[in-house]
Amino acid sequence: MDFSLTSELRELQDRTQSFIRDTIIPYERDPRRTAHGPDDALRHELIAHARAAGLLSPHVSRDMGGLDLTHLGRAVVFEAAGYSMLGPVAMNCAAPDEGNMHLMERIATPEQKERWLRHLAAGETRSCFCMTEPHPGAGADPSLLMTTAVKSGDEFIINGRKWLITGAEGAAFAIIMARTVVDGQDVGATMFLCDLPMPGFRCVRSLDTLDSSFTGGHGEIVLEDLRVPATDVLGSIGEGFRNAQVRLVPARLTHCMRWLGAARRAHDIALEHSRRRHAFGSPIISHEGVGFMLADNAIDMHTAQLAIRHAAWLLDQGERADLESSMTKVYVSEAVWRIVDRCVQVLGGLGITRDTEVERIFRDVRAFRIYDGPSEVHRWSIARKLGRVRT
Amino acid sequence: MDFSLTSELRELQDRTQSFIRDTIIPYERDPRRTAHGPDDALRHELIAHARAAGLLSPHVSRDMGGLDLTHLGRAVVFEAAGYSMLGPVAMNCAAPDEGNMHLMERIATPEQKERWLRHLAAGETRSCFCMTEPHPGAGADPSLLMTTAVKSGDEFIINGRKWLITGAEGAAFAIIMARTVVDGQDVGATMFLCDLPMPGFRCVRSLDTLDSSFTGGHGEIVLEDLRVPATDVLGSIGEGFRNAQVRLVPARLTHCMRWLGAARRAHDIALEHSRRRHAFGSPIISHEGVGFMLADNAIDMHTAQLAIRHAAWLLDQGERADLESSMTKVYVSEAVWRIVDRCVQVLGGLGITRDTEVERIFRDVRAFRIYDGPSEVHRWSIARKLGRVRT
Amino acid sequence: MDFSLTSELRELQDRTQSFIRDTIIPYERDPRRTAHGPDDALRHELIAHARAAGLLSPHVSRDMGGLDLTHLGRAVVFEAAGYSMLGPVAMNCAAPDEGNMHLMERIATPEQKERWLRHLAAGETRSCFCMTEPHPGAGADPSLLMTTAVKSGDEFIINGRKWLITGAEGAAFAIIMARTVVDGQDVGATMFLCDLPMPGFRCVRSLDTLDSSFTGGHGEIVLEDLRVPATDVLGSIGEGFRNAQVRLVPARLTHCMRWLGAARRAHDIALEHSRRRHAFGSPIISHEGVGFMLADNAIDMHTAQLAIRHAAWLLDQGERADLESSMTKVYVSEAVWRIVDRCVQVLGGLGITRDTEVERIFRDVRAFRIYDGPSEVHRWSIARKLGRVRT
Amino acid sequence: MDFSLTSELRELQDRTQSFIRDTIIPYERDPRRTAHGPDDALRHELIAHARAAGLLSPHVSRDMGGLDLTHLGRAVVFEAAGYSMLGPVAMNCAAPDEGNMHLMERIATPEQKERWLRHLAAGETRSCFCMTEPHPGAGADPSLLMTTAVKSGDEFIINGRKWLITGAEGAAFAIIMARTVVDGQDVGATMFLCDLPMPGFRCVRSLDTLDSSFTGGHGEIVLEDLRVPATDVLGSIGEGFRNAQVRLVPARLTHCMRWLGAARRAHDIALEHSRRRHAFGSPIISHEGVGFMLADNAIDMHTAQLAIRHAAWLLDQGERADLESSMTKVYVSEAVWRIVDRCVQVLGGLGITRDTEVERIFRDVRAFRIYDGPSEVHRWSIARKLGRVRT
Fold first, then answer.
1. Is D380 near chain C, with CB under 8 Å?
2. Whole-prediction pTM value?
3. CB D270 within 8 A of CB D300
4. How far apart are CA D158 and CA D150, in angstroms?
5. Over the stretch C146-171, which tens digit does the pLDDT of each residue have?
6. D86 is in which domain, residue-wise?
7. Cβ–Cβ of D209/C354 closer than 8 Å?
8. Do residue B269 and residue B380 come from a single domain?
9. ipTM (interface pTM)
């Protein structure tokens, strides 16, 4: 075993940390941050900085303009990027684009890559992933998928409703999951690529949400006789769920990486406050009620980082790491939540104001215990694996 | 022992519940709800409804237009009011006005009551309580109070800075806590009444905060040579902290009451969702991962209600109930938080959208573990009492 | 509402507290305490003290020699008795005898009462309740009951295996639950009374267990052609489960009462230690890491007591209190556990030695989260009720 | 980074696992297990097995008969050994001997090694470490050390009282920590080696404790004019606390390693039960209330293992790892506790009987949150480090 990072990776980590601290954090007070992430102008300005710093899209291949990072490399760099909520946007490694790039590099055709991925990887465009549906459709249980794509000649005609679609507003294209019907037969779920805007794809509203850092917010989409040519199927027909796994496991981990960075930021803000702020005769960190919270933060960050890096390393070894990524997702999403909640508490009244970045992190991170599988679904899935496998 | 409510109180509880359900909840979608509570027009409209229903200011004396409720009566009625975040506003029993009325009824002079309290109790005006100061001033540790009131002839000249002052924007008067200097001597803290607007009292900004339901938001105030006549001292000179206790203990409990109502609302929304929403073949409430959360909510609401009613009853017996109100504040603020957090989790993606009232309750209630004494300060105070008293 | 106790009940509480403190606690160092509770000689000596003090069997009717306490009265007195692990034994209100007396007072025939209950209530004899079976029989799920009672003439012939039968060793009689077969038909579960010792009822071993305070320990029983006359059916044939409810709900609560007393004892020991023991320059209670644990104990004891008294009061009003007793059982069993665990931690190394009574309480109370329905079964049952009832 | 084990280490892990499973676990039902660990005969029999298997004292140097394992190697092998509570005894790597060997290898003189260490490493003898004192002496706060060693000619005369001294009964020698006085001057704490039995060293009692697996139990020692030649100082005079650090940090980790193995054992027993035991129509693992507990176990074991291996690796790099070993000690001791507590709950009634090994593990592991620094002391120490270091 070896817990050290290569010198290349350490150098990249340092460089990312400096970039975030010196170039990105100053933007956090920029009024162009909206309730739905940075606006277009700010986004492009941030991306230009990352491009200049050689830090754009670090997860994609060099051919596509990235740094071709391994999963472990992402664990290190995305955590550093996440130290500012604007970092992943700047470095073009925020959700859902990052996961979409990962997916497309693996299963898109060369033509699809040139047409969609290249611009996405360059930070010129944004994308969205249209999977979740409003009640009673697909959510934590994807088998409830109700959107249909019916083959009609060389096209598919898609109808349905999607919901909580991150980044839909302003996306240049969508990946749409639909139950597919060919010759009157349900042949399973399929993913489709679709340029936006497009008749038949209507973003009927942008949801008001607790979080506020996802570019483009979360939209509700009506799909009405949306026509997609058969050539724009992503992967194979009927293989939608299987292919989604290619995206799902790593996407789950990259969320963990970025959020761990955000939690570390919150912790540093709370820690700094706890050293400066006096009450009852001494800095509040010297009161155990406060100090213990910060100690627990340190423990949570430490164990979360180990779990993330381990799971990333497993993926790099070619393992599926289903169980480990589920365990890591549950553990990190809950650890990050505990950390940020403690930071609010340490900051006291200041913690619930927007005067520090903690308030925003707090609002944004709550959803992580829900998306990419709620804790309950992962625990159920872990238990099912335990029930089956003989130890 | 008798855990039953009198028939009068049950009738009032029923009436309040109907009023909230039929008259107030429909306003929750009113666009006049802002990030800083209902706007003035909406507030007055809501108050008119409560007045018509005979439910205005139930905690003040009949002479002042209220229902003269005991503390136990408040426990029942405020919980019912809190079932909508607009309920306490409508019934004029929201913080900080409710606590200010309670305080003034007990320690204001007859002239002060006519001049300030009567209009406040009638819901015509709003007020604010200026105690908390920005770092390094008074917060969880009130002894750090830095604002000064210097006696000069028949006046006091007040200078300082206040922060997180709920309802300051738009208040018709303020109660201001200041360290008092008479003849060059620090004679302790004093509370002052002061009409608003007033030169020398400047609301320099309205803070952006996690919560969004307090009317007038939370302001930052600069006090610059604010002149207050000696007749406008509330209570006695130098008795500010002692008199603040008159407000503090019951105010702590009324927060518990209202928030318990809000938690119950969140629970009912989550429960209803859990019965309707299906996943993996059955309503999600039938999955233990969800059902157990709702069961824990039921337990938390039950024990929280018992603790609140017990502490209120103690106050009605003339007890100071210092220990019990501290224990209740810690317990209820944390129980309510657990409940609402679980509701978000049960609702899944829906829980982080503003499509249900749960998102707003979630944001608003977080601060309750901080204000009126953070959990840590109460635990410290409880431990100190345990350390002293021989069992 | 009225949270005060009647003066009669307060007097009885005082008297019980003095009795426990002055008469019973000194016996805690008696070598006749075994790994399976006090031995026979000690038990009779303790009972003689309670009889002399007029505190024997306070829950049974005056006709049977008790104090005819209401459920609320039991809540107060049993908590005081539980302050020593020997208290309920002395006062003849320990499990399982206390629950058996309660059951028999309600459903036994006058003849059965004279024959069995009178001696039991007088503390002359002990009894056991034979319900639980070893895997794969009845446990948390009683429907798995495998023991059978087959009608044969005027007798029932019982065969089966029982397990974890508290107090079996040395009991003068047993109540046995068995699936009943009459004329080849399964007519449901029935309870039978049976003198001990008796051929066909063999205690094959006494289990080694974590706990050590139940008189007679926990036995494993083989029932082999045990013959019980039809006159010794307790209640009616086929009504075993229904009648068991008569015992179950109150028995669940009386466990809560006694264990709360034990938790209070552990807390007082830890509190006293925390005032005397110095570390890092001051009494350890003044370190928040310790003080907060004691504060949380105070909160847990307070809320647990309220929940117990409320549920007891409901029973006194003639309510079934199914939901409330389930909530109370889960809450109290877990609160008591937290309390005692914290006490061990506060005591440090001392906490894991038998030098204080805390070690024994710790071992004994763990099982309470399991018996009378594990927390998981109660949460499931509460959720099911929530799922059904429209709010 | 590389999370894989070398093939040598994997082979050793496999070999240890087989040894424990095939050779040691069958001894768990041996009646020679007492309330104070295995008796002498059993201990020697177990050690003979480990010697034959080439697995004795794997942590000591090859010169002393061991396998010269790195800290990481210990992490792997000790966890495997801990899978049976008898494993570390058999392999001569149980506390306190293992830590004493580690310490002596580093700071003892060659003569001391031959005289004491060689026999200890061979499993022929046992030892004890006399540091902790009864109230008001040294415990969590070592500065309270009251035992004195006064220089008198070529000897030290030691007086004091020690308490909770693991393995004292039957030890062949002791390491004694005492405040040292030379020429009337307190020159700091010193460690002394002392053959046993010895006049002046009296084991006045063996404590009854919650745990039952430490060989020789925990003794209380009176030191009365105990004479130790100056040549038997271990390390240097006045360097006792500094030298104790050499023992402390690794000893803290080896406890984590062994207990993680024990927790894994408990988990496997509970898991197996949860697959076999049916209730409410299916194996109990399929009920989320049970399945989630087992899933949480899996997460806790995974993160605990990562933290242990990381800290061990740091030591292997020559780091002091103060912070990481504190974080790991807190995390693992609490994670292991959660795991074993859940196992008891999953097992239900069976969990509180000695019919499975879980009951014993449960009792034994509770103390780990206390010894080697209670969680509270470690959290305080972590917070102090956070407060100092600028991030």
1. yes
2. 0.98
3. no
4. 6
5. 999 999 999 999 999 999 999 999 99
6. 7-121
7. yes
8. yes
9. 0.97
